[in-house]
Records
---
Amino acid sequence: MRRRFVKGTITKTTGGNHSIYSNGNIVTNAGGFIREIADGEIIYGEPEHAPPKTLFEKMLVEGDFFDMSGNYLGSTANSRKHIYIVGRDAFQNPYSINNFPEGFYTKFVSFNGIGNIINLKVGGKYSKQIIELPKEERIKVAQKIFNHYYTDAGYDLNELKYKTITEVPDEIPGGAFALTRFGGVTPHSEKLKEGEKDISITYPHLGIHIITGWDVINLFAHERGQHMEDLIKYNKKFYITFPGPYEIERRAYMYQLKHKTWIKTSPEFKGHIWSVISSYVHPSEYGPYLKDNYKIV
């Protein structure tokens, strides 16, 4: 997957034919009009045949599999943490840990998914990547998927007040990509007792700016790895030690960029970080981590 941000004009010139094929939908949006010009005819409804399906089978990416409720089922042998959601059987019953297609597992050792190895070809046949799901389905699975990667990152959900990754509350001014709260210290923590912890993510970002498990784990490096650690260490002296939001966020962003998972995150995730980081971090600091991904024209 690739995303480019261009402040200007893109012109493509092809010497021969120019074909676009997609295993899913092709969407074109314009703020103004869409113009099509041809010396010959403009033909709709009679496309050339796409390449054989085997081409798309080869495009399947190693990843982690979840059912339609967000329960973790297992991963392929060489998972790159792309997030797959397993669909329904011929009778429209959702596949689950107790009901899965023949050949789905090459190794089954647990009902919580840990240690299970999934056959990529079979799993890919009955699944969709998270980016292919509609918003309501992505939101439905978000909490359990975020919980899985929180523990996968080495953290313990039991340390959080609600034992889960919550959704960013509606009352947060301007919303937030993610939020760390610490009772008795941080704003909007009225429902937390002193010292109680909560980490929230805006669920609809899953499948839009959060594409892979590495994205989630890297986001937790920012929220749990730096923000929460600072709050635990400095407690009520937190805002005395770091007056104002800039140094607080700069510390978390730089920890996130230097984290070992950053290089594995998706272009969509990097694109979102690129769009907001300049409010807190100078380009001379974040530039080396983003320059190869986003060239502004």
---
Amino acid sequence: MTKTANKQDANGPESLTLRGGERVEFPPEPGSKYAAFHRTVQIKTLKQIEDFVFPGVGRRPERKLDTLIPGKVKESVLNCLDLIIPHGATMTLNDPVNRITARKVKIGGTLVSNGHLSIECKEIVGGSGVIELIVSPGRIGEDHGNDPKPDKPPRQGNGANAWSDLSHLFYAGDGGNGEGGKGGTRGGDGEIGPVGATLLVTVEALGTDLTYRCPGGDGGNGGNGGPGGDGGDAGDGGGGYGILHGGNGGTGGTGGTAGAPGWGGSGGNGGTIDITCKEDNSDSTNTYDVHGGHAGRRGYHGTSGLGGNGGSAGPNSEYSIGSGSNGQDGDNGEQGDTSRDGLRELGRDGTFGQVTVRIIP
């Protein structure tokens, strides 16, 4: 940084000029050489930030700063004579609300704000520079893709032998059918992306060749579904006696259904760019980008559980007539439910935000 000797008056602020390739963040570290340009203001009432709540004539109530709780949020104020960010340099402002007051702002590099931003100056001009306000994407849905497979049910009991009790005087018992596997857990839905931030520029002369960017936040990706548990094994048929043949083996349990995927969150709507100037000298060379955030990706299905093993037919005696049948293996589990309802709709891209450039002579 170069602190020039050119001052507005004996007590006025100096110019803040970054070097090419330099990266500076505000608020600065304690004792930083940049501390002279910065101060922090505690937001006690929403009146302190009412200019952000309803910017300009295009009022959009949904853009209220609902997340800015008075008494818990701070505002960064950056004050300098001239602010110059050359090509390759980056300045990042990290508070929820940020303000820059200067005589001239020239941006050939990148000015990033991780919150709402107000710029008040006599002249603002680019040089292929970018002012970008960034909002965080929506949170990713709870992921169950790496969950352990649910425990397999215990094997079912074997059928009773023929002639072993009064209930089996004339036939052997069949093996018990396997128990179905437990279904996997559904992945969580991604969070909706936040609405883009608000950029306010109050300037006498609006200059050329600068990109203003306030996109909406991307929706969070849906979480992956968890694995379904394997079906339980069936019991074997009971043994034959005399002329009575052995019992049938039981059918294996069906595998558990795979956990369904979580839906991706919708992208947040684009932010607000509100510029008030006395002269618009931009000659259509500026770019205003308020695109909505992208929808989050849907998660993936979990793996289906395997069907349990069928039981074996019971053994015959040497005099048995006929024989029992082996039980069938259980079916593998199905994929999780992908039906849509009001709570599980597919994510959508956010809509464009609002750009206003008004000239007040």
---
Amino acid sequence: MKRIMMTTVLLLTVVMGLQAQSIVGTWETVIETDDNDKVTVDVTFEQGNDVLIKGQLKIGEGEEGTMVMSVTFPGTYQQNGQTLTLNFDANKGKINIDEAIFPKEVEDLLADDPDKRKDVLKMMQDQVDESLAKELGDSLPLDGDLTIVKLTDTELVLNDGDDNVTFTKVK
């Protein structure tokens, strides 16, 4: 009887430990770009191997204006031991201009004409959409094979071959 209880406790400990280290959920990190802009990146791993990467980037501040954009790319993942393979589909990615704050002289020109403001924002969105295909091609950051350095209930550390990227579980 004692042996059965010990085996049951050991089995429960192992099973609970495996559940505690599930990659499923939403993980967040902040990455600094070469231009010193900060990008908040959320990666959501779902049951069934679907993955979604979302980012929000604030570009520029001050006299030249500010633009806030959100980025979304769907894909799939496969975990095999410490190797995590991510495959994002750049062709299904979306970049949206969430907010645009223009320099004062441009704001003054657009203030009286809401239609002109919409046209300018649409033109900017079209340029962003066009440049997305050119810039990314078929490759995205975190795409491909990564090494899981650490995985706990609250922390995920991935290595892309050059750098460690630390994520915090948010959901």
---
Amino acid sequence: MSRFDYSYAGVGEFMRTDPDLAAGVRRRAEVALAFAQSIAPVGTPEEGDHHPGHYRDSLQVHGPVAFSDRAGHQLGSDAGYAADVEHAHQVLARTVATFSDPHGGSGL
């Protein structure tokens, strides 16, 4: 009979360094990016939006990012007014909620 000894350090190392896992996480981040872009507000000049689509187009995936226990990616915007848009429309919060739900939404 064989014995299995679980190694938290070994699993953590795998989750931080495995290229196949990193590629899968990147693909999921890109799907989340597409979702965020699809729900980002895009106004018109008539509505007072001087740069229609700029916030949507500023959304991007950053990474890989090394967390203490795993590798990951971050989704964000480099628009100077991104915090205002997030406060008003909760684009990233809604994206996280959708992709964090283990029972629905994204299927990821």
